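tool_log.txt
---
The assistant was asked to compare two proteins side by side. It first ran the structure predictor on the initial sequence, then on the second. Raw inputs and outputs are pasted verbatim so the downstream comparison step can read them without reformatting.
(1)
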Amino acid sequence: MRELFEYAVIRVVPRVERGEFANVGVVLYCQRSRYLDLRCRFDASRLWALDPYLDADAVLGCLAAFAAVCHGGASAGPAGQTGPGERFRWLTAPRSTVVQTSPVHTGLTDDAERELDRLLALLVDPPTPPTAGLGTHVPGTHAPGTTAA
């Protein structure tokens, strides 16, 4: 049976004042099944393109704390002691820190774990080449790999 889920993209914003970010993960919550989990892919080279002085170890520490709250338990502090819905809301609350989330989005799924993996591939992993037939040629431009006449 399909169930409603909510998700947000986890972003690293190396310099908050600049607003530039790289997507590093997805957090997904299904209320009916009480499912809350996240997946992250940390690629320091993508982040160093935004800020070559970024402390990757500090960011990994922040992401580990984020994961601890997601999974709950005493080691995550007071936020980790709450239910999955409250932890999801805590994780997705707006903040001006190096680790932030996108606005929350919704969808329907038969399998929350599979959906989380799909969203990670779609929104975090490096893009794959577009398939033939997608996209439209813009008049007055030339297609990639060709030169203008």
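(2)
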Amino acid sequence: MSKTSKAIKSENKKVATKTRASGANDVDTYLAAVSEPARSTLKKVRSVIRSAVPAEATERISYGIPAFRYNGFLVGYAAFAKHCSFFPGSGSLLQDFTKQLKGVEVSTGTIRFPLDKPLPVALLKKLVKIRVEKNRAKKTR
């Protein structure tokens, strides 16, 4: 690899890192504006999502809510006046989890849960990992 190519590659990595960092900063700002107990709940959700996404995934505010992107929209989450929501980016995905989602409000493409009670870690990780695989498959087409 030529010296110029290495320099360009290095600069691209710096730009990508800055983009990821600024997107995460926007999410931090969003979370700081959310009142308790929803803030703590969303921080837990964010932490679980981060543990399940590839390193190349980015965070940003999308459509006014915190979201992760990996080869397109991956998942999002948000706080509202009376509940928190998780947006898996695929309504059809939720149809496969009706048993695990018993007790929470589900509509097409949205899971609503109490302000003070995040979704179970194992369920959240499973949903995120399925979305990662679906988006990864889009990339290889």
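---
observation on (2): Helices lie at 3-33, 38-52, 91-94, 121-139. The radius of gyration is 17 Å.
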